[in-house]
Amino acid sequence: MVLSMASCKKYDEGPAISLTSRSERVANTWTIDRAIADGNDVTSDYDNYVLTLTTGGSATLVATYTVFGVNFTGETNGTWAFQNDDEELVLDFENNDADGTYQIRRLTETELWIHKVGDDLELRLK
User: Fold this and answer.
1) Of 108, 78, 107, 104, residue with least CA distance to 93
2) pTM for this structure?
3) CA-to-CA distance for 37 and 115, rounded, in angstroms?
4) Residue among 89, 95, 97 at smallest CA distance from 125
5) CATH code for 2-125?
6) How many CB atoms lie within 10 A of CB 97?
7) pLDDT tens figures, 66-87
8) Which phi and psi (to 5°) does residue 2 adopt?
9) What CA dihedral angle connects 68, 31, 91 and 118, to 10 degrees?
10) How far apart are CA 112 and CA 32, in angstroms?
């Protein structure tokens, strides 16, 4: 029975089973818990990012930056969608700066781990 449960697991890092749909799990307001690029911890580069995804496929990304002691907030709206049998998350924003396709590594109601396709960037959102 354990072997059959392991084979049902959709994403590399789990969960093995969930009673909540993928769309409902991905719909959340996410912050970056950890970011790794080229093997280096770059979490501080993403401290002020907030990604909001809705069950209807809308996406909003808000980023706050401080330059010379002055705070700037940038916001862009767009869409999200699953692709490749729900194994990838595609983000498409108005300003195109944060567009990308991400392989989903883990998707629970409180964790979303994604790896940018074609890049060595892994984001762990909570």
Assistant:
1) 78
2) 0.84
3) 10
4) 89
5) 2.40.128.280
6) 11
7) 889 898 999 999 999 999 999 9
8) -60, -40
9) 80
10) 9
